[in-house]
Amino acid sequence: MIKKCLFPAAGYGTRFLPATKAMPKEMLPVVNKPLIQYGVEEALDAGLTEISIVTGRGKRALEDHFDISYELENQIKGTDKEKYLVGIRKLLDECSFSYTRQTEMKGLGHAILTGRPLIGDEPFAVVLADDLCVNLEGDGVLTQMVKLYKQYRCTIVAIQEVDPQETHKYGVIAGDLIGDDLYRVRNMVEKPKPEDAPSNLAIIGRYILTPDIFKLIEETEPGKGGEIQITDALMKQAQDGCVIAYKFKGTRFDCGGAEGYIEATNFCFEHFYKTGKAY
Ligand code: UTP
Question: Which residues belong to any copy of the Nucleotidyl transferase domain (predicted)?
Answer without folding.
Answer: 9-267
